[in-house]
Records
---
Amino acid sequence: MNDPINNRYDFVLFFDVKDGNPNGDPDAGNLPRVDPETGHGLVTDVCIKRKVRNYVQLEKGGTNGYDIFIKERAILNKYIREGYEALGINLNEPPIDKKDGEKRKTKGGAQGGEIEKGRQYMCRTYYDIRTFGAVLSTGANAGQVRGPIQITFARSVDQVVPLEHSLTVCAARSEDKSIEEQIGIQGRKFTIPYGLYRSHGFISAPFAAQTGFNQNDLDLFWKALVDMFEHDRSAARGQMATRKLIVFKHESAMGNASAHKLFDLVKAEATTNPVRDFSNYTITVPTQSEVDEIAGKSENNVSKVAIEVKL
């Protein structure tokens, strides 16, 4: 279970929101993100990864190998420096290995083979680096990591309609101001009545081999995608839930079919207009035989791409 995964995976994730703001746009006063040309709602890949990170942090509590690198108020260069300290590498002294140079080119910065040691340590220690990758070339410098899992923006299946709500305050806070000027309309809240969002993801076995991403990590990732909204509640986000997670597992590390052809087999269609609930959608999941028509079977009659519905 500790060996890196050796299969490629592609997946389709459906999640929805009701009377909430799934991902506010800071460039538009925190309005829900929307494609201005089509009216479809958007949720960034960064937003989805943030929820995965938060879930893993709650699930594992920072235990060895499952700490989170990108977290709130973190000082990233400090974590990189502490990694070298844990390896016993003093970045204020000349490199121990002469192959790495006679002296340091940058004070407090790793160089040569030290960088690879630092990169490997960061991958072993932090789940999100091992999963999504990270830029570690600042500060003490532990290079760059390209993670095995990449996720697209989520786009709503149909158009969404952002709504604006006035917020009123009935209690004053300050004794130095009159009550009248502190109560009444004091802010705005933005929501969409309902939206079903679809995102695509890709998992590379070759990159998993580079970071050490293993089956335990993968199982935790699936669990995080299914349950990430259960501990991410807030008044602003309304009701959000993962509705469907469809996984395509390839027989080989490099893959046995084009991802876009597999994704095209998964369809979501509204049965009413307007849509106000997940029950108003029909999601079509392809059969194994439909997948085999694209990917084929191996010589021993085993499907080259297996389909699994996680939720």
---
Amino acid sequence: MALLTPQGVKEVFQCQKPQGREHLRRLLKWEEFDELRDPRRSILLDVLYDSVVFAVGKGFPWAEVAQVVKFTEELLRETKGKGRPGRRG
């Protein structure tokens, strides 16, 4: 689970996207990874970074931005491997 602080997500937001993603990765205590060889992790990091940008854009306070990232990470973990309802295959 993300151990993010309001200050941490503020720092992520204040960086350009590549640096912000890297800072977020460190805040999440993820090991470094090869984005080309591990596209799932790269996409997950993008989703979490985009959740920061979205929440800030909606005017959330920094503490709530951190909660959005935590919620998003938990939601993605809980739904991993689950298919869409009504989908055949």
---
Amino acid sequence: MLPLQGMKIVELGHYIAAPFCTRLLADLGAEVIKVEPLGGDPFRGWGAQKDGHSVWFSVHGRNKLSVTLDLKSEEGKRRVKALCARADAMVENFRPGYLERIGLGPDVLQAENPGLVIARISGYGQDGPYRDKPAFGAIGEAMGGLRHLTANPGVTDHPPPRCGVSISDDLAGMYAALALVSACWGRDRGQGKGRVLDLDLVSSVFSLSEGMLPEHGLFGWVRQPAGAAIPTAAPTNTYLCADGKWLCIAGNSDLIFRRLMEMIGRPELSADPRMATNGGRCAHAGELDAAIGAWTKTLPAVEAEAALEAAEVPCSRLYDIADCAADPHFRARDMVMEVEDPLLGPVLHPAPPFRLDGVTPAEMVRWTGRAAGADNDHVFYELLGETR
């Protein structure tokens, strides 16, 4: 019942971007064969370990078959070619030119399978003056323009923080998954041979720039950090509560704004002609934030949240992962799943971010990340038909 059942993907990925792409495809039913170096994906050494096994990899490698190969050896290259010959697509995130140097470039692989779609993810792309520079996710955030915006306004003695996850790797992986499925769809509907897809970390972050580029081109504007506020909508901000917790409140529309002011005991502000439109409220956002902040400081975050929800004002406490794991909505929708990992025991997984009628999230997570090379025999001798 999974929509990508029958699609065959080879992953020559490591660390985050390519493996995140293939995890999404595997969650949707694709057969993903992850080719790891003989010592395993270096990502297995990141984060927490239990009994010598990577906790992160339980999610990172789920629904994938794992084989180990030395890509520089003749046997390794022969097997990669054989895997790609039976595949719909291959995903990789080596530095540009690496696969060509070891004899596994697109021309070689597509000679084995002209319909093969190849998704290549790199720091800066397969061409351009920066193509050979090394990059990790933080570099994508920095050059793509995101890290500039995560600073607090007026704070110059501390660097702008990262968002806390490898967002540029994840974005590039999502875009690669979309492009790969699109290319396979086009190939299977008469566009002929496979394509080579070029994704990169910097472009993936830069694509989120909303209206910043046309604003700069037309008016010379350079968007600056706005902190927790939204300069184009007010009142929207994050406010400190009596227990030291933070509460995000979005009172953007005229109706919601009136309900919000009534709830905090400041109906005169909603009646003020200066606040009649969003533009007026943006011009006086500081005054509104002060009024809302004075109210939130009188209540613990949970109580303030409950009061605003009763008034149908969009709001949320700033959740940490413990809040997510315990929240009844997360649990009711199986967004937090307890799965059995043979290497770790019971472990919590984030559910696939898709909801498909007729398929439960539990049915989408068929197995957790395997040990490196756990599927060598199955893949090489059963799927490829090699003799022992």
